Amino acid sequence: MSTQPVHDGGALIPRPEKTFPALRAALAQVAPSRLAEMASERDTVFTMATQSNTFGPIAMFQLKWATVIEIERFPEVARRLHAAEQAARALDKEDSKWQAAMDEIREVMQAARARVVSGRPWSLT
Predict the structure, then answer these.
(1) Are 36 and 69 within one domain?
(2) Burial track 63-85 (b if 16+ CB lie within 10 A, e otherwise)
(3) Does 68 reside within a domain?
(4) For the segment 67-113, what is each residue's pLDDT rounded down to a tens digit?
(5) How many domains is the chain partitioned into structurally?
(6) Structural domain includes residue 123
(7) Which distant-in-sequence residues (6+ apart) come within 8 Å of 58 by Cβ?
(8) CA distance 30 to 75
(9) Rounded distance, CA 102 to CA 93, Å?
């Protein structure tokens, strides 16, 4: 794991480290409207970790928010995801376009998570 953030071409900000302070600071830059959600979830996750005596919930919290930030760092990727999310909410589940929107959401999320885990830059195609 690199201690230096990676700055990919086209990114609004460098990729943050997966520490809570770095993730919070990055989220404040790319999606400040989600800071309250992150703080609330952090409280829940830390309680779960304490009760279960494991770091698993904290690791999943870090991966989730690093993935969210990875998407939001790239405006075009974020637009793709948000358009698909909006379509999925608006369409009937029986509509074939709903499944296409869900596939798009899954594709973007999986690609972002893979980038976070591997540290590789995006291939924006």
Answers:
(1) yes
(2) ebbbbbbbbbbbeebbebbeebe
(3) yes
(4) 999 999 999 999 999 999 999 999 999 999 999 999 999 999 999 99
(5) 2
(6) no
(7) 45, 46, 49
(8) 9
(9) 10
